[in-house]
UniProtKB/TrEMBL annotation:
Pfam families: DUF4240 (PF14024). Residues 160-181, 193-216 are annotated as: Disordered. Residues 1-144 form the DUF4240 domain. It comes from the Bacteria. Residues 171-181 have a biased composition (Basic and acidic residues). This is DUF4240 domain-containing protein.
């Protein structure tokens, strides 16, 4: 499976999800794009399901940057973790190829996306971009086809692949996520969008000082 075939599957899933494809993920509400993607994947031969997961990992790696770490920090309540950032990058994939490419080139472009605006507008509601179900869509599809919860991971190991949750050191210039002046300079539109409400709550939290996502 090449990257164009990968994105075609994502597009079909988004088409099946309809208007829900551009909404924020919300607690208690099924992630329509992820569910549609699982359905698409179950129609593929098993090796192609594994291949989809392989390409997902490579695509998500392109979004492993400090500036997108900052975008996630601002959008999703001021928390950073390896698992959470992996889910965030998968969520960016779920927004479609055009939105993903714009976010990689300019993370501040996310401020214009309706899903991100939905997070901003959802005061008091648990909304986010990160999508765990999409991150593990291939594993879920493989299990649905085989009836074996472990078969997918055995196939991934046999192929010598890395799961899409694999993380390295984020690319790009590292900067202090606690510095509000940097927020205003680097992602000014995101900073303005989340300037009130949960953004301010997040700014009072201390980012982790150990691990790959420490802030400075």
């Amino acid at each position: 499976m090449d990257v164009d075939e990968f994105w075609q599957l994502v597009r079909r899933a988004r088409d099946a999800a309809g208007s829900a494809a551009d909404r924020a993920v919300e607690a208690g509400v099924p992630e329509s794009t992820a569910e549609a993607l699982v359905a698409e994947l179950t129609r593929l031969p098993l090796p192609e399901i594994v291949a989809f997961d392989r390409v997902l990992g490579r695509v998500c790696e392109r979004a492993d940057t400090w500036d997108l770490c900052a975008a996630r920090w601002i959008i999703e309540y001021g928390f950073l973790s390896d698992d959470g950032f992996a889910e965030f990058r998968a969520g960016l994939v779920g927004l479609g190829r055009d939105a993903f490419e714009r976010a990689v080139a300019d993370p501040d472009s996310l401020a214009a996306h309706p899903a991100v605006r939905g997070v901003s507008d959802g005061a008091g509601r648990d909304r986010w971009i990160g999508d765990e179900r999409l991150l593990f869509a291939a594993a879920r599809a493989y299990e649905q086809v085989t009836g074996d919860a472990d078969a997918f991971w055995a196939a991934v190991a046999s192929a010598g692949d890395e799961p899409p949750t694999r993380t390295g050191r984020p690319a790009g210039e590292r900067w202090d996520l606690r510095d509000r002046a940097e927020w205003r300079r680097r992602p000014p539109n995101l900073d303005a969008l989340f300037a009130f409400g949960r953004h301010d709550q997040a700014s009072t939290r201390q980012p982790p000082r150990s691990g790959r996502h420490d802030a400075g």
